[in-house]
Amino acid sequence: MSGVPPDDPFAGVPFFAELSKAMAARGPVQWDVARHVALVTVGAAQGEDNVDPLARAGFDALLPVAGRHVREAVVPLTGAFAAPKMEVVNRSGWVHHTLESYRGVFTEFARSVTGADGDGADAGDARSSAPAGADAFAALTRMLAPMMLGMSIGTMVGQLATRAFGQYDLPVPREPANRIILCARNVDGFAVEWSIPVPEMRTWVLCEELTRHAILGAAQVRGDLLAAITAHAAGFRPDASALADRMGGLADASSDPGALMQRLLGDPTMLLGASRTPAQERLAPRLEAMVAALLGCADLVVDGIAVRALGGAGRVAEAVRRRRVEAAASDRFVERLLGVRLQETALARGASWARGVVERGGIDGLARMFAAPGRLPTPAELDAPGLWLERISLG
After folding, report:
1. Closest by alpha carbon to 24, among 10, 9, 3?
2. Distance of alpha carbon 263 from alpha carbon 336, whole angstroms
3. 341-356 tens-digit pLDDT
4. pLDDT at 124 exceeding the cut of 50
């Protein structure tokens, strides 16, 4: 089924046919549009070369060694380590995996920004305060929202695919829980750019991805983290007035239509006039503390593994973490949407917290975070490791 009504008068006109499909589509997101736009963004709309068999073999050869080091390091923390399956993919493969894995959280976001979550009160309040003409503009936007969201999500995921090493560049647990994906082209390209030996770079990325998989995916913390991320993504509300103001401001500020369109497509909160809510503002510090603590723990583990597996690899760690805090605009938009902003100050707080816990309570003290759900630190505890240890001990 094409989704176009059989008596559609515009069916023979390409532009109107596509527009009609979008308007007739069911669901809050046009996933076919998202996939196509993402593939265009990575230059793979007409296909892409498969991963070089030598590169795939290189990762396969390094996986057992990296897995053994990660197992030895994380089992004392999480209590278990189940080696995941590894898929080495090209950029288009990364796109397909990511769109499928993030479908649930992107759907929650789409429902929130289009007012399709049944919360008529918020949408009505936004419309009543909108300036003249904004209601009609907002109505048209809602009509086209599935296509617009597909374009925006596809743009973001495509841009991420041009630089992501694996699936944990964004610290969000994925499904299926027994798999990790690595983008060989991006890993090897970064190694060449920074004059790092390719095997060393591959080993470091494998260790980091496996460690993050074990820590972010631990049953005791995974549920808390995913619940907070989903709540944040579902917390936006449509705001017709904000949409009109942003569009007017962008039009005044930009003399480059291409740059304006790229910015709009890369930020669905701007494209659809979504506004943050008080609930999100309250959630944001808690979610930032969760992510910072988990990444601080993972970085501590990876640094220790690097000493044993690579004799240090401080140069690799420095280059990768500089890349992390100097992320592209596309990363920032997705981080804002999911509430997992990887700002340098937050990452430094997380690293300091993890070191502080180990200094006071050893690895056993840090392992208490994984002993039961609800043990991730609060924002106040992230700056006071002793306070967190005291609460966990009392619990």
Report:
1. 3
2. 14
3. 778 888 899 999 999 9
4. no
CB 358 within 8 Å of CB 333: no
* pLDDT of the residue at 2: 43
Residue 264: per-residue pLDDT? 56
Q: Which helix (H) or strand (E) holds 183?
A: strand 179-183
pLDDT in tens, 199-239: 999 999 999 999 999 999 999 899 999 999 999 989 888 76
Contact 222, 173 (CB under 8 A): yes
Closest CA to 151 of 254, 272, 11, 43: 272
> What percent of the chain clears pLDDT 70, i.e. is strictly above it?
75
| Tokens 């969201």, residue located | 149
Distance CA 205, CA 222 (A): 21
Query: Which amino acid does the sequence have at 353?
Result: W
Handedness of CA 45, 50, 52, 56 (dihedral sign): positive
This prediction has a pTM of 0.82
Residue that is written with structure tokens 């950029």 in the block: 91
Which 3 state secondary structure label does DSSP give 194?
A: coil
Q: Are 212 and 165 in contact (CB under 8 A)?
A: no
Which alpha helices (DSSP H) does the chain contain, by range?
Answer: 14-24, 31-41, 53-78, 91-101, 103-114, 120-128, 134-161, 184-193, 198-216, 219-233, 240-253, 257-265, 268-271, 278-310, 314-325, 329-338, 344-367, 379-382, 385-394
**Residue burial 344-360, b: 16+ Cβ < 10 Å; e: rest:** eebbebbbebbebbbee
The pLDDT assigned to 129 comes to 45
Task: Write out the two tokens for 199.
Answer: 């095997």
Does 337 score more than 50 pLDDT?
A: yes
Rounded to 5 degrees, φ, ψ at 253 are -90, -20
Looking at residue 275, its pLDDT comes to 74
2 HSE (CA, 13 A, CB side): 11
What is the DSSP code string of 233-282?
HTT-EE-HHHHHHHHHHHHHH-S-HHHHHHHHHT-HHHHTTEE--HHHHH
Q: What is the pLDDT of residue 12?
A: 43
The answer to whether the beta carbons of residues 207 and 166 sit under 8 Å apart is no
